[in-house]
Design a protein that fits this description.
homodimer, alpha+beta, 4-stranded antiparallel beta sheet, 10 strands, about 45% helix, about 25% strand, elongated, DNA-binding
Chain lengths: ~200, ~200
DNA sequence: CGGTTCCTTGAGGATGATCAACGAGGGTGG
DNA sequence: CCACCCTCGTTGATCATCCTCAAGGAACCG
């Protein structure tokens, strides 16, 4: 989404600097407010029983996150953690609901945003479920590139994630990610220069 | 969701009887209209390159489906197929958008529906990604039961799906589903009576 | 009955996970 | 400037598990 920051502040939104790897909310907590990223990045994730982490979604500058439980008055199904030093703006649940009443266009935007999330999830779940490690990774890479560069830019971009982060997102193990990326670079599907990954 | 059927008809919705296993729309087609199930059931699915099917979602009486691409003016990411003889009601894109303008409450409902879909997807993706066959199947069963019976009913219900359908939904193979269900029934996590599955 | 669909079982193979090291690079403090 | 540490990347060997392939059995329906 992206509500204008001035509007958020006018309505009582509070900005906050947050260090890397800070937890914003925990899985199982009640949804307390609307969060939007002024700068930085956030991941939503679950911790598996065996301590392995699975990343459900990535969010960057301008993105909001954690709205569905807020609207449903549900508990958060994920934990939110900053991936870099970030500045977030938070608006309390009550104020957010008032704001939506006041500006129906926000509701419309949110509807489109949700539609897009469902749509993207559907596209991605396809590459993630039960298919080869390669197509899982490709799904992740193309999704990231699409979001970053817009739809059709063919020049490779640097993928700013560690192998471990890619593993967490694809549900694979680090070693598998490494070996698969190696194969993919041999086939020129990705480039690896100095251990940096380009796609 | 669930828009009142009389309202849909008043606005130009057309009901249609459809036999089992009929394709309502194909993956890659433009979204042409709003669909709601009067009776029967529908699945959204993808066909893998190797001919294997993956089921993305199940929809039953009263449910609408395929709205996100409609709102985004996108192509359908899935194919929709009836799972039983069904009666569907369809409203053209233009009329649906007009209807939404006229009744803001529909927009609100849709927003909540989308929020719920995202929320449920998030809960489920957790049990589906990279975990054991058992937890995948459990995820499927509990989701189905929750939708059918409401939240907390402990009495087992008949699961009206074939092993193959469960396999398509969980991304497993039929044989794995069968063997896993057998193990689960030995542990009393499910009941199998006369090849019928209860949970 | 005969056909169709679904369920079941067994054997074998492929592949990703696991475990255990080690290497490379970047930052920090002495 | 060097030694150390810490994170991240990499490699190899072994293992567990799910998929694959093949065959047959049970239930249902005309």
């Amino acid at each position: 989404m992206q509500i204008d920051i001035d509007v958020l502040i006018t309505w009582g939104g509070i900005t906050k600097k947050v260090a890397k790897d800070t937890t914003i909310f925990f899985e199982g907590e009640e949804a307390r407010g609307y969060y939007q990223i002024v700068s930085g990045s956030v991941r939503l994730c679950n911790e598996n029983s065996d301590g392995k982490e699975f990343t459900q979604g990535l969010f960057f500058e301008g993105d909001s996150f954690g709205e569905p439980p807020l609207i449903l008055s549900e508990l958060y199904p994920c934990t939110a953690i900053t991936m870099t030093d970030s500045v977030l703006i938070k608006l309390s649940r009550e104020k957010f609901l008032l704001l939506m009443e006041e500006y129906p266009s926000i509701e419309k935007d949110l509807l489109k945003l949700f539609a897009l999330r469902i749509y993207n999830k559907s596209v991605n779940i396809r590459s993630m479920m039960n298919t080869s490690p390669e197509s899982r990774i490709m799904g992740f890479l193309s999704q990231y590139k699409k979001r970053t560069k817009g739809s059709n830019n063919n020049s490779p971009i640097l993928i700013p994630f560690t192998r471990q982060q890619i593993a967490n997102f694809t549900g694979l193990r680090v070693e598998t990610v490494i070996r698969t990326l190696l194969k993919m670079s041999e086939l020129n599907k990705v480039n690896i220069i100095n251990r940096k990954l380009f796609y």
